[in-house]
Structures
1.
Amino acid sequence: MSIDTVGPAGALARIAAIQSRFTVAAPTATTSTSATSATATTATSGSTATSFDDVLGSALDQVKALQAQSISNPSSTGGDLGARAVDAAKKYLGVPYVWGGTDPAKGLDCSGLVQRAYADVGVTLPRVAADQARMGTAVPDLADARPGDLVAFGSPVDHIGIYVGDGKMVVAPRAGQDVKIQDVYRTPTAIRRIAAPADPSSAAVGGTGGPAGVPAQLKSLFASAAQRYDVPVALLTSVAKAESGFNPNAVSPAGAVGLMQLMPATARGLGVDPRNPAQAIDGAARLLARHLDTFGSTSLAVAAYNAGPGAVQRYGGVPPYRETQQYVQRVIGYMGGAA
């Protein structure tokens, strides 16, 4: 009989093999000893056989030890994607937090760390925390979280880390601190489990969802611009929905023009005709890409699109303008809607 002797599966196979060698007799009222008893001696060797319970217990101990080794040292048994992502993230411990940072040589922000760690294990994630928190599959609560799960905070999401187990996460916390392992200090608003793509080229590159009712003739324009500037297509279509309801002829009382409601001066700076849907979408995608790079947050990028980047910088977040706050909520809401 050939038995795999490697890893937990091998230990379980050995248990099965051991079980096949024993016949455990059911105890009866009239039988005090039995040749098939688990404590029977081996006449041929003159030694006492180990009891079945002892052998089984020893084998189970081996399984537990191998499983513990797999958790503490994933590479010893191949590891899973989440554990490898944790190991990758730990390489950046001590790297300083830099807002908008994606280069470990200069600094990382929270979503930059997450994106970098998963890139190191072959998975491409979106750039900003709110989009990362839409990837993979939902985990119901922290009790069910596994190493490598993304733990996100805020509504809309504005902070994210990688769960390492035992109630802790590896994270780029905030300005003045370095990448470190710390407690999950409050209840996450989202926990997401990332799966390895069957083909690296199929790894997700943007958020899912988006508003309903995108005109068929515009879908390819949105998709092309989103890919060209590495902006989630759901974000681009959601902005268009909020701005004009997909109306290329819309003109606002303030003078914003077209599908993406670009001000004439902004359109001139981008070199686009705001009344031309293809050019308007291209220009808006470029603007959103700049804001995402600058602020590292979907909600702040959306706020900058509405109120201008200067206002976001001045207030250190979404400006306290009722119009802008409602606009951000509307766009983020569309992003979570049906495709």
2.
Amino acid sequence: MASVTDAELKEMTQEERVKALGMTTEQLTGKSMYIEFDPDATERFEYPWAPSVDFNKRTEVDCDGKTTTEVNNQIRALMAEGYGTIVLQNPRGMHSLGVGILSKLNLIIDGSTGYFSTGLIDGPNVRITGRVGWSCGENMMAGTVVVEKNAGSTFGAAIRGGDLVCRGSVGSRTGIDMKGGTILVGGDTGALSGFMMQRGRMVVCGNAGKNLGDSMYDGTIYVGGDIQSCGVDAVEAELTDLDKAWLTRKLTQYGLMPDKGVDHFTKIVAGKQLWNYDNLEPNEKKLIL
């Protein structure tokens, strides 16, 4: 700053120097990064090259003896033929099944999958009758994924939209870097769930592990059981009537509504003490720090 001389800067503490040079700003408390969905938007809901499928046109694919690439290519070929309901039999824990599907599809995986199943999807409705490994639904953009049993760690990492549901329990780091959408867990979740969460909602009907919501920027986490500890800048907030109405509707939709209702849920949000933005460009910071 022109009003501060080099001699004055040398006499300042590091904290005083940072403030004098405009490298911190006011805390952005009371504000939100959440953007409401526009119900009037009608364009760009489907990719122009997406195949037109008929949900009543059903077929099965036996995954036994096939590679993941062969199965995923067969899904795309069947969609091009108009099949709207595809059942994968004998997945036997295969990794990366059903990834990158960018159009409407009713996909049923009859069994358990390995890592990265149904990631990078935009539109399909998926039901997995067994368990899933790490990173199921990673970078999911739209659609639904319902896992009937348990899930591994990083469930829904960087999810951007849609509903990702696990009826059982999940591992650690659920919803890490979550950017939108909804994650529903019928059981417990492990440590560091909601880490660096930016938008969206996470609902855990059971207990949550250590450091829940650590460094979250925005979004909301609801926990029906005990919370072992909250992370940095994650704080409890009032559970409003709107929260209760949304929880009731969403949990009922997927058959996860607790017998005692939703009044007992704890709501966790960002304290927003980390919401500081620097005024200087990176090169300017290097000169000072």
3.
Amino acid sequence: MEQQSDRSMASEAPLRAVRLPTQLTDLDMVVPYALIAEITDVSLPEGSIRLGRNEASMVEWRGQQVPLISIEAMNGEPVPTIGRRVRCAVLYGTDPERALPYYAVLLSGVPRSEQIMPAHIESAGPQDNALWKAVVRIGGRLTAIPDIRMLEERVDQMRIKETEGAGQALS
């Protein structure tokens, strides 16, 4: 009997997440808190103040190059106007099969850490975007939960394309 009540309490335990501010139309985005390596400012390489739908810009973070992507561009929406210095969330890569230990997501504001009660998550119906694992309502707000593996696959493809392009430019 005690085990059963422990399980039901565990399923109602709050989920720790970070709401990442983007300029997605009518949609917030949350990721698990454990995926966030750091929220920071980075400088874009000279002449790289544009992020396209299938493009990543390589930026320096803690002495290494990481791909920076725009969730808005990946969803076919206008990319926020950006300057040479941008705020991003650096996320841990989760797939050991990929050589993608970190990647960065362009932010349009300051992210917020929050605790989400499972009871406050409501279904928002089916969605047709492969980038989202689910689109739900949390506290009345339409919120996207990204499919991290799909996101990492797309980022990795963009990173490889960017790296190959830079190698060809040096030839």
